[in-house]
Amino acid sequence: MERFRPSSLVATRRALLIGAMTLPFLGQSLRGSTLTKTADEADMLFGCAVRADQLFADRDFRALVTSECGEITPELELKWAFVEPDAGKYNFSSADVLAAFASENGKALHGHTLLWHDSIPPWAAAQLAQQSDWTIISRFIAETVTRYRDKISTWDVVNEPILIGQRDDGLRASPFLEAFGSGYVAHALKEVRKLAPKAKLFINEFGLLYDLPQDRLKREALLQLLETLKKWGVPLSGIGIQGHLELQHQSNFNQQVFADFLNRLGGLGLEIRISELDVKENRTELPADIRDQRAGEAVKALLDVAVENKAVGTITSWGLSDRYSWLPGAGETAGYNRGLPFNTDLKIKPIYAAIQQALAKRARQKP
Ligand code: G3I
Fold first, then answer.
1. Residue 104 is among the residues annotated as catalytic for this protein
2. Angstrom distance (rounded) from CA 235 to CA 357
3. What's the CA-to-centroid distance between 274 and ligand 1, angstroms?
4. Which tens digit of pLDDT belongs to each residue from 295-325?
5. Residue among 75, 273, 324 whose CB has most ligand 1 atoms within 8 A, to mutate
6. Beta-carbon-side half-sphere exposure of residue 138 (alpha carbons within 13 Å)
7. By the 8 A CB rule, do 22 and 351 touch?
8. DSSP-assigned letter for residue 127
9. 242 by DSSP, 3-state: which?
10. CA 342 to CA 40: how far, in whole Å?
11. How far apart are the first and last CA of the chain?
């Protein structure tokens, strides 16, 4: 594997950019810091999702990830459909590359994700539809978790298990649930705990941010699931709250409602990750600087609340630069691509400043 060390050229350029840019609405200079450095000062972790192909094809981008992030999350490379496209034939080459990058550069590696209804290889989906045979899943879990036992200390064990409107308990009628019943979540967590006794195990969910009927129901359904798991003594360490902000709903972001939700999660003894942070825009006709400002303000509103809660330990951006973002390909948001901390030229935007400011606020609160 090619080994990378940040070039002084890139570092100098970044320092100049940051030094030159003071974001008036945030009222503070960002001189001399990176997100991971400020996160360190706050005893938190900042990271982003990356893809191995992008990381290694683009030296400047890699330098940016190296300097800004204390953790990386494989965007695709650990998902079941990616790892085991054919039954029993595992492909860990891309995940291995990311694991090597993480360990060579002192980054944490977050395991995303083991059970996700949206990443079941077609052969496995066909088998699960025919037979309730947990070994179809447990082989993949065992191969993957064991391989990265010393490299991955946090896992999204179950991704997106809630979907309102399908069942009274709010659980998603996924192929896992259809095959094994609602106990599959607890079963998976227990299984991963045995394979990786020291890892922190998470459930990761989206659609929890806004003061909207659907999000309200989803928060309640998730809390009900988490309370049940805790009551049963299931080894669950925390919850990932996907931070996919949507500007069309931003007027429905209620800081008190979100703070109350975080308090209830923290009250269950759960660690909280603000995972998958990005911003879906809704007004591409506006000038770029206004679009960027609006996105920054949405992130600021979210993170200002998040960092007030001590259970929040990690903030993960779903990508670092608009140069590589899933947003433009994402259905109704196609073409809306100013949702990450750095623009396509790898220059900072108000989202970056909002994250910096939130982390700095938390650092100042330390005793
Ligand atoms: O690489 C293939 C390419 O060879 C092929 O021609 C093309 C045809 O569709 O597909 C390409 O793969 C795509 C891959 O991204 C790489 O671009 C997949 O179809 C596409 O499904 C995949 O999308 C990813 C998606 O998860 C599904 O794995 C997104 O990049 C990724 O950002 C997204 O991330 C999810 C989180 O894991 C869970 N939460 C929601 C989040 C956003 O959807």
1. no
2. 34
3. 20
4. 999 999 999 999 999 999 999 999 999 999 9
5. 75
6. 14
7. no
8. H
9. strand
10. 20
11. 43
The phi, psi pair for 271, rounded to 5°, reads -80, 150
With tokens 């359904």, the residue in question is 221
Selected catalytic residue, list 160, 191, 205, 297: 160
**Which pLDDT score, from 0 to 100, does residue 9 have?**
28
Closest residue (by CA) to atom 13 of ligand 1?
Answer: 76
- Residue 114: CB atoms within 10 A of its CB come to 25
Considering only residues 366 and 252, tell me which one the structure prediction assigns the higher pLDDT.
Answer: 252
Q: Which residues are bridge partners to 279 per DSSP?
A: 245
**Rounded Cα distance, 189 and 172, in Å:** 17
Contact of 280 with 330, CB cutoff 8 Å: yes
- Ligand 1 centroid to Cα of residue 333, in Å, is 15
Question: What is d(CA 37, CA 29) in angstroms, rounded to the nearest whole number?
Answer: 15
Half-sphere CA count of 128, side-chain side, radius 13 A: 23
β-strand 152-159 against 200-205: which pairing, if any? parallel
Number of neighbouring beta carbons within 10 Å of residue 209: 27
Other Cβ atoms less than 10 A from the Cβ of 68: the count is 24
pLDDT tens digits along 134-174: 999 999 999 999 999 999 999 999 999 999 999 999 999 99
| Phi then psi dihedrals of residue 65, to 5 deg | -60, -45
Handedness of CA 245, 249, 255, 256 (dihedral sign): negative
**CA separation for the pair 129, 201 (Å, rounded):** 27
- For 107, list phi and psi in degrees, rounded to 5: -100, 145
Closest CA to 105 of 31, 30, 47: 47
227 is catalytic: no
With a cut of 70, say whether residue 2 has pLDDT above it: no
User: Which residue, 193, 230, 207, is CA-closest to 160?
Assistant: 207
Per-residue model confidence as pLDDT tens digits over 41-97: 999 999 999 999 999 999 999 999 999 999 999 999 999 999 999 999 999 999 999
The closest of 88, 146, 87 to 114, measured between CA atoms, is 146
